[in-house]
Design goal:
Length: 158
């Protein structure tokens, strides 16, 4: 009996990593990368997510509403972000908005075309280099946290 257990142990430890017997869930950032998106389209602090791999429907969760500046824009993420993800495309996006002049406008779609990401707010869109999204922004201060006066970018959900 001990010999059989030893053989089983040797077989299990020699299996490739893809056959590992773990139930470890990928992070939301790792899932983005599987769909060919950079991690920086989500801010730091995602606490969990749900993903239907057949339909691509997803929900990502933050501790609260998250706002921060990026270049000349202000972005706001609600505590729940949802949409449909597929390779190089996120559609039906809800929970992410950008401030244009004095108004918050919902970002409805994100697409990747080579080394650019396009963000659509309906009839208008803007494209940015992919390299702008290699790093996750922080709530409150975005990517410029060392030079920021923000204390905390999370706002408690009501």
């Amino acid at each position: 009996m001990a010999f059989q257990s030893l053989i089983l142990l040797i077989l299990l430890t020699s299996l490739p990593a893809s056959f590992a017997l773990t139930d470890e869930k990928l992070s939301a950032y790792q899932v983005l990368q599987q769909y060919d998106f950079p991690i920086g389209i989500l801010p730091e602090g995602v606490t969990g997510y749900e993903l239907d791999q057949e339909t691509g429907e997803f929900k990502a969760y933050l501790d609260g509403t998250c706002t921060f500046p990026i270049e000349s824009y202000d972005l706001r993420y609600k505590s729940t972000i949802s949409g449909v993800i597929s390779k190089d495309k996120i559609t039906k996006l809800k929970g992410v908005s950008v401030k244009v002049l004095f108004f918050w406008v919902n970002i409805a779609e994100v697409t990747r075309d080579g080394d650019e990401l396009s963000f659509s707010v309906g009839i208008a869109s803007a494209s940015f280099p992919l390299e702008n999204f290699y790093e996750c922004p922080k709530c409150g201060c975005g990517l410029d946290c060392l030079n920021s006066n923000y204390l905390d970018g999370f706002v408690a959900s009501v």
